[in-house]
Automatic annotation (TrEMBL):
Name the UniProt record assigns to this protein: DUF1871 family protein
Organism from which the protein derives: Macrococcus equipercicus
Record lineage: Bacteria, Bacillati, Bacillota, Bacilli, Bacillales
Pfam families per the UniProt record, alphabetical: DUF1871
Length: 85
């Protein structure tokens, strides 16, 4: 079960990821929240990757490589384990 600590750290992790390389990372806040929602709702990793790609494609007409998202999801999994301790 993901908890409040996890949600706070997940927000920071995705905001810091900043795949659009915005100088002001808050410009991607809505996408961060969308990604958080996807991560919470989607169990299938490949589906999660596709849905995150869609978020950034829809918002910025940019394609995020699957490999980059897989690296992010690896960090999310590690974070989830740390927050369960």
């Amino acid at each position: 079960m993901m908890n409040a600590e996890f949600n706070i750290e997940l927000y920071k992790l995705i905001a810091d990821w900043n795949p659009m390389k915005f100088e002001d990372a808050s410009m991607g806040d809505q996408e961060v929240y969308d990604c958080m929602d996807i991560i919470h709702q989607t169990d299938d990793r490949d589906e999660t990757v596709k849905r995150i790609q869609h978020v950034y494609h829809f918002s910025f007409d940019q394609y995020i490589p699957a490999e980059e998202i897989h690296l992010l999801l690896d960090r999310v999994a590690t974070l989830n384990m740390q927050c369960k301790l």
